[in-house]
Design goal:
With about 550 residues, the chain is mostly beta strands. It is built from 7 helices and 29 strands.
């Protein structure tokens, strides 16, 4: 085990944030069916009223009104008919095909039709009506400002008055509304006052946007306490305009940590400004307690998040962040444990989220550049010591795949590479609940490394749909059980080493494990993940356990 990462408050804070990230990546939520009430009249969408027995030789087609599909692409529908003698039945079939293409693209209020005309020289005119949005109405809500819902959550999905209506954009906007834990929305579509327009009526209910979630796990480290308690307190809409404040407190025998993040939307294009602060105060125990080692770290972060693409269950975003970290470790007995560094870094990332009929993919690629400016320093013992001037590449991908028998699988791969010898806070740390179960948390660290996880989860069979518990007089609580408790089996593999350590690769840089677990999510008041991991392969040292139990329990009280 790398002692420096176990006693460095900056590294401990970085690893804690990594754990939270992987929890969010593999968290599963029930997909709710979108509620869209379509009151549009059918003839508004499909009406084409042309009757004629005339036949003529088709020499060309003149399209007008189309902006979504170019005329060159529409010409392809009629290419087989050019030069042939046709009647209006053949033309109507092609017009119907064009309308279907628009509707498959999500433009359900757009259509093609034949206007009144006199056909000359074999040229027929076809008009395209691309139905637009007339009014967007939002009911009054108690906590969220209707202007925020309209100008941010809705407008950022290209839903604006006088724009061409696409139902896929509507579904994305409605999903974003419902993704907010304090909002619940549905939509009614009705015909607008102007011809070929649609009114969109959002019916949104909101609750007080406060969340309070205590947690308990054993993801801590031996020197600072394996058992950890956590408290998350957040307000998901402070002013009503979408700004959020998230606060987390982490407690263990030797750690007191605080993480806070404030985020606010900028404009109607989905851009968000994030500002964060972290604080870690540690006291080292176990066999190192006589050395009286203490550590303190402060971190600041400012980031901008930009949406790049957001349609049809595919989201692509980018972000750029500036981070500052100050970390100090001191021993009043042994100066060999003393270290101090100031880190300044620019980090740019690309994020992808894709949903399909059988699952979802989340992926991120990040480039970090350490800057030897603005106070970035490190007390170096020699030239082989880590540096604050570095370039680091990181990437990860997670696939959640639906499987037969109501089961699903999780594939996760992450890795990093740097040609520089990194500070502890920037190194990859593996081992533990979210990398290699069966091993201690952060047992390996290095400038380069990877982590692979394969996991299958299947509902525990023969459980009733729900159980009923008495609650007060003449009241009961119904707790759902069916498909809420999963049995899991997994294989984990991880590797990490320091690129500049001048030591050849050995089996001690590689760990792998197998095991089983239970995943419980019966109500919002009880969520638990429990795993038993068994290390596979050659034993790394005499202190390695033959089996290790990992657990995490949380409750969303508010």
């Amino acid at each position: 085990m790398e002692i420096k990462n176990q006693i460095d408050p900056g590294a401990i804070d970085a690893y804690s944030k990594e754990q939270k990230f992987w929890f969010e990546q593999t968290e599963t939520k029930e997909e709710e069916e979108l509620q869209i009430e379509n009151n549009l009249e059918k003839d508004q969408i499909n009406k084409t009223n042309v009757k004629s027995d005339i036949r003529f030789e088709l020499k060309g087609v003149d399209f007008s009104g189309n902006t979504i599909v170019q005329s060159n692409d529409l010409d392809k529908f009629f290419e087989p008919l050019i030069g042939q003698e046709i009647g209006f039945d053949e033309i109507l079939n092609k017009i119907s095909d064009i309308t279907k293409v628009y509707q498959l693209m999500g433009y359900i209020t757009s259509k093609a039709y034949i206007p009144p005309q006199k056909i000359t020289d074999g040229i027929i005119k076809i008009n395209i009506i691309e139905g637009k949005i007339a009014q967007i109405e939002i009911n009054e809500t108690k906590w969220a400002k209707p202007s925020y819902i309209k100008n941010n959550l809705i407008a950022s999905n290209d839903l604006q008055e006088s724009k061409i209506f696409n139902v896929n954009n509507l579904k994305t906007a409605l999903n974003e509304i419902n993704d907010k834990e304090y909002l619940k929305g549905k939509v009614v579509l009705k015909r607008g006052d102007a011809p070929e327009t649609t009114d969109i009526i959002f019916k949104v209910k909101d609750r007080f946007p406060l969340n309070f979630s205590p947690s308990w796990d054993n993801f801590g480290r031996d020197y600072t306490g394996v058992q950890r308690a956590g408290i998350n307190f957040s307000n998901q809409n402070i002013t009503g305009f979408g700004d959020t404040l998230n606060n987390t407190i982490d407690l263990s025998e030797g750690i007191f940590g605080i993480n806070t993040k404030y985020a606010v939307p900028l404009g109607s294009k989905g851009v968000e400004l994030q500002v964060g602060y972290s604080y870690n105060d540690i006291k080292i125990g176990q066999e190192l307690a006589p050395e009286k080692i203490k550590g303190l770290s402060h971190g600041l972060k400012a980031a901008l998040v930009f949406p790049l693409y957001k349609k049809d269950d595919l989201k692509l975003t980018s972000d750029v962040a500036y981070e500052m970290l100050s970390s100090k470790t001191e021993s009043s007995i042994n100066s060999a444990y003393n270290s101090k560094y100031e880190l300044r870094a620019i980090k740019t990332g690309l994020n992808l989220s894709k949903k399909d009929k059988t699952g979802r993919i989340n992926s991120r690629f990040e480039v970090s550049t350490g800057l030897p400016i603005l106070g970035a320093t490190i007390e170096k013992e020699d030239e082989s010591s880590p540096t604050s001037n570095f370039v680091k590449l990181e990437g990860n991908i997670t696939r959640i795949q639906l499987l037969p028998l109501s089961s699903y699988g999780i594939f996760r791969l992450s890795g990093q590479y740097s040609h520089n010898h990194l500070l502890s806070a920037e190194q990859m740390q593996v081992g533990g609940m979210y990398s290699a179960r069966g091993f201690e948390e952060g047992i390996l660290s290095g400038d380069i490394g990877y982590n692979l996880t394969l996991e299958v989860r299947k509902p525990v069979p023969y459980l009733p749909n729900e159980i009923t518990l008495p609650y007060r007089k003449d009241k009961v609580i119904k707790i759902p059980l069916k498909n809420r408790i999963y049995f899991s089996a997994f294989y984990d593999q991880a590797f990490a080493r320091e690129l500049k350590q001048n030591v050849p690769y050995t089996y001690k840089n590689f760990i792998q494990s197998v095991g089983t677990g239970l995943n419980i999510s019966v109500t919002k008041y009880l969520n638990a993940n429990m795993y038993v991991g068994i290390p596979v392969g050659r034993q790394r040292n005499d202190t390695q356990n033959s089996v290790r139990f990992h657990f995490a329990i949380s409750s969303d009280l508010i």
